[in-house]
Design goal:
Length: 129
């Protein structure tokens, strides 16, 4: 579930999620539908084996949206990886960086560690490393 906010880092989050989905790394859900409380969308996210959010900035709209429906996601924030809101180019390299971070976390093949806030931790170069 990406933030698709109006900022450059929101667009990077969205494009990274779309790339991961195209690569068969997971399925995307409609964050707006979940935020609106549409029952089918909410049921889909609540029934998912694992939920990953990719927010552009620390405001955490994607993470908070799913948490409001009782789902604790593994959360990634684009600005945590060297991108600055309003000053980050939206290009293939930026998207590859975030896709790489998520792939390296080990989130597809098993449960990954997270701190109490739900933010992904990949210390030591890998999940639970």
């Amino acid at each position: 579930m990406p933030c698709s906010g109006a900022s450059d880092v929101g667009e990077i989050a969205d494009r990274a999620a779309r790339q991961l989905s195209q690569d068969d790394y997971g399925d995307m859900f409609c964050l707006a539908g979940i935020g609106a409380g549409i029952s089918g969308f909410v049921a889909s996210v609540q029934g998912a084996d694992k939920v990953i959010t990719i927010d552009g900035c620390p405001v955490g709209c994607a993470r908070k949206t799913v948490e409001n429906h009782g789902v604790k996601p593994l959360a990634f924030v684009v600005t945590d990886y060297g991108f600055e809101k309003g000053k980050s180019p939206v290009n293939a390299e930026s998207v590859r960086t975030i896709v790489g971070v998520i792939r390296k976390s080990g989130t597809k093949g098993g449960v990954c560690c997270s701190d109490d806030s739900g933010t992904a931790t990949t210390a030591g170069g890998g999940c639970c490393g």
